[in-house]
């Protein structure tokens, strides 16, 4: 069954040569959603809602999406290879049928049966042409799959490279933030310890001099400055990390949307392609049946009696049969054809040479030795 020209399959397929790839993919995605949504009240989950994770630097959701895209490329490659081999098989079968129709003889057959036999060879040659055409179509479809897969690969590669860079930047800033966090916490602990030490020294006036207290205060001030610097660096690292996280989140949303459009367009494309494969086979079957019907119509005109009469008319030798040879009694003087030569006289024999009855001339005598 060939797809209707009013269906989204046909319209979008015809737009393939006019639209930009990304627009084409979006158009395919919209057509897919419009053609496949049977219940408008049913809400479908999208990629952008289903592939997040709590791990700040986790990539499991993205990697699963990427694997799906890569698996889709492999499927396209498998379909391409299948179509190539299928087209090659049809072309080889076509050549075999052409060779068969040329090598078959049978010219001796005449009449209606002969016409049927000759038409069978003609239709076999036509069937070979049908398979050659279908083989060429399979080869062209394989080329279209290769082109489609390559365009999808180039499109997804742009976002794959960008996400790889964003993931790397987010991970690096996360590690820096963790380092500054550890430094900040360490400086805070140093500050707390220094403050406690100063309090203990101030409470033990009998064992601590004013000079020692001044040193502890100076050291405390340095710890506070180091803590404040670590705090500033820690906050700056958090701000940078949050800015990159937002970039990454936006990029992830775009990638989810693009990957879903790519996947939907791939499913749509391959589904339509496989449909067209069945159309090629269906058309070939119809053409084969037409050729077979043509032979059947010719054979229906084959009448056994007519073929027999035709052979008789062209090859008959006569209707008179040889008459019966009657018995001739030698003693009654009747000569049979076999006794003609045995009733020769001595005049008919010259030195052992027979003279044919009724001959007026003597045969040449053989030379003496």
The CATH architecture = Up-down Bundle
- How large is the count of helical segments? 7
Q: Can you list the strand order of the major beta sheet?
A: 1-2
- The radius of gyration over CA amounts to 51 Å
* Succession of helices and strands: HHHHHHHEE
Helix content: over 70%
Q: Tell me the strand percentage band.
A: under 5%
Biggest sheet details: 2 strands, antiparallel
Kindly identify the CATH topology: Substrate Binding Domain Of Dnak, Chain:A, Domain 2
Distance from first to last alpha carbon: 97 Å
What is the CATH class?
A: Mainly Alpha
Name the CATH superfamily assignment.
Answer: Arfaptin homology (AH) domain/BAR domain
Number of domains: 1
Q: How many E strands?
A: 2
Tell the overall outline. Answer: rod-shaped
Secondary structure class reads mainly alpha
Mean pLDDT rating:
81
Please mark out the parts with pLDDT under 50 across 5 or more consecutive residues, or reply none: 1-22, 37-41, 346-354
């Amino acid at each position: 069954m060939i797809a209707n020209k009013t269906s989204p399959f046909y319209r979008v397929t015809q737009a393939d040569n006019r639209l930009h790839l990304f627009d084409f993919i979006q158009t395919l995605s919209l057509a897919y959603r419009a053609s496949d949504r049977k219940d408008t009240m049913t809400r479908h989950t999208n990629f952008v809602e289903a592939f997040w994770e709590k791990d700040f630097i986790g990539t499991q959701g993205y990697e699963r999406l990427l694997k799906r895209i890569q698996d889709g490329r492999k499927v396209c490659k498998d379909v391409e290879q299948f179509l190539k081999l299928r087209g090659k098989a049809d072309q080889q079968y076509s050549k075999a049928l052409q060779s068969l129709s040329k090598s078959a003889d049978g010219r001796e057959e005449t009449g209606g049966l002969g016409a049927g036999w000759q038409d069978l060879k003609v239709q076999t040659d036509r069937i070979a042409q049908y398979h050659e055409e279908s083989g060429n179509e399979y080869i062209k479809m394989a080329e279209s799959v290769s082109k489609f897969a390559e365009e999808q690969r180039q499109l997804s590669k742009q976002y794959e490279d960008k996400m790889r860079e964003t993931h790397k930047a987010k991970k690096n800033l996360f590690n820096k933030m963790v380092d500054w966090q550890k430094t900040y916490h360490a400086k805070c602990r140093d500050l707390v310890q220094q403050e406690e030490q100063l309090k203990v020294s101030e409470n033990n006036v009998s064992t601590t001099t004013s000079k020692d207290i001044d040193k502890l205060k100076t050291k405390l001030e340095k710890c506070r400055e180091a803590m404040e610097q670590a705090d500033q660096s820690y906050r700056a690292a958090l701000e940078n990390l949050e800015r990159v996280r937002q970039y990454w989140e936006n990029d992830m949303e775009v990638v989810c949307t693009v990957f879903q459009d790519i996947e939907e367009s791939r499913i749509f494309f391959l589904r339509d392609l496989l449909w067209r494969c069945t159309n090629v086979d269906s058309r070939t079957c119809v053409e084969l049946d037409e050729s077979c019907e043509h032979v059947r119509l010719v054979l229906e005109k084959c009448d056994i009696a007519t073929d027999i009469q035709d052979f008789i008319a062209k090859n008959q030798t006569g209707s008179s049969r040889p008459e019966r040879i009657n018995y001739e009694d030698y003693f009654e003087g009747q000569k049979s054809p076999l006794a003609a030569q045995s009733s020769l006289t001595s005049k008919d024999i010259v030195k052992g040479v027979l003279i044919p009855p009724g001959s007026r001339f003597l045969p040449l005598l053989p030379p003496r030795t």
